[in-house]
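Before relying on records like the one below, remember that each one covers exactly one chain. Contacts with other chains, cofactors or solvent are not represented anywhere in the record.
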Amino acid sequence: MLPLLPTHFKHLSLLTAVLLLTACATTPKTYSNIDTSIDFAQYKTYSFFAELATDRPGYESLESRFLKAAVSREMEQRGFSYADESDLQINFNINTKEKIYSRSTPSAGGYYGYRGSYYGAWGGYETRIDQYTEGTLNIDVIDAGMKKLVWEGAVIGRVNEEALDNLEATLSASVHVIFNEFPIARPAQ
């Protein structure tokens, strides 16, 4: 057997870290609802609510600014134009909550776990508890004339430090995923 050199430790720890992160990664869930009685081809313009749910009292938040830019890109790629007096109005909501996930797995008994099957020892179950933050981003699209919700999209997933450190990119990617469900598709490129 070859001795482990310091460079092997670096590669081994990097590989271990990548495997752990991959094992813990979860795919965000996307949801959308649509008013099927609406013909979306009738809409040409969009705007944002004057007071978005993501704003703070008295000022526009960074989240609102990042979401407006991302949604504008998605809407304009679909042929919509921004207008103060618009056909559609858009609002956002962001919600986070702490979640706890527990799981039980059988644990081996006996001497160091290897003699349990021969001597009938049963170790019971080992319970692991993980705490994480779950984030939800909702986008509401409202018919401005009827004051009626015509489409909503949402993405739900785990929020980690990397997502918070790169908030603009995280929100932009989330909006892109949500708009994959929008009734008007982006033209093929």
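DSSP finds five helices and six strands in the chain.
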